[in-house]
Every structure is written in structure tokens, then in C-alpha cells.
Amino acid sequence: MRVLVAVIVVLSACTPAALVPPTAEPAPTEEPFYAPDFTLESLTGEMVRLSEQRGTPVVVNFWATWCPPCVEEMPALQALADSGVKVFGINMREDAEAVRDFVTDLGITYPILLDPDDATVLAYSVLGLPQTVVIDANGVIVDRRFGPIDETGSRLRIPR
Q: pLDDT tens, 113-155?
């Protein structure tokens, strides 16, 4: 199963933005769609649990070092983090040391979380990279972007 997931993700990874809708709003329902909880280790060794972020909107970005559009959007995510938005980058199954060196070289300071077994990627139905999810203060997914975000992140619907 892990091999199948890896093949699907690799084949669909870094899909040109022109081929993927820039946003996919959750279907209107009577019940809100809550973000699946996760607990992942950061590059600093801290365990980060999504549900502990309640009360604050969060931007979760799924990415990999080998994905050019992922790398292109990292400055925009850093700018969001610098403006006070809580941003978590979830790296897909790469070596922690290589990821640490990569983000250090780029000057990325927002928390990078490691998903070594793809459990979070599967929980969020990530089929291509990059993918960005905006979660409101109540834990509800309010925006989802497939492909890179714009250079300022201004099109993301981040509740303030």
C-alpha cells in the first residue's frame, strides 16, 4: 500500500498549476469539515499536535525538496509566517538532515514537520505537491490550494 501511495504521489507531484484548479472549496454541508488531527516531529525535535493549535488559524503546506513549485512558494509561506500567521510545512518522507540543510539554505524559519510514513499525507488526501490547507481557529478546513500559492499568499482565505 505504501508503494502504491508513493507511486501515486510521485506521478501526480508537482502538477503544473494550469492543469489543477487553484482552489477547491469544501462542498457545502450542514456539518463543518474538521481537519484531521496529527502529531508530527519538527526538525527541532518538538512534537507538534494540530489540535493544540485551536484558537489560532493555521496554514498547513505539504511539500518536498525535489518539487520545484514547492520550493518556489516557500518565500511566500515564510512571508505569511513573518506576518504572524501560524504556518507548518509538512515534508513528505525525506531524510531529516537533508530537509534541515535545505530549509536552512533557504532561510525558512517556520516549523517544518516530518511525515515519515505518509500518515498525514493520506489523512489529508494529498495526491500532488504542493498542497496548502487553511484551517480556522475551530479546526475547520476553510481553504485548500492545489499547486503553488501566489507570491504573497494573498489569495489564501486566512481567517484573521
A: 999 999 999 999 999 999 999 999 999 999 999 999 987 777 8
CA 52 to chain centre: 17
Total domain count for the chain?
A: 1
Longest CA span, the chain: 45
Residue at 65: amino acid letter: T
Residue 156 covered by a domain: no
Question: Parallel, antiparallel, or unpaired for β 86-92 and 141-146?
Answer: unpaired
CATH number at residue 76: 3.40.30.10
d(CA 95, CA 149): 25
Asked, for residue 107, whether it belongs to a domain, the answer is yes
Q: Length of the chain, please?
A: 160
Q: What is the pLDDT of residue 20?
A: 47
Residue 112 identity (one-letter amino acid):
I
Rounded to whole angstroms, what are the CA distances from 45 to 8, 30, 38, 75, 92? 29, 39, 15, 23, 16
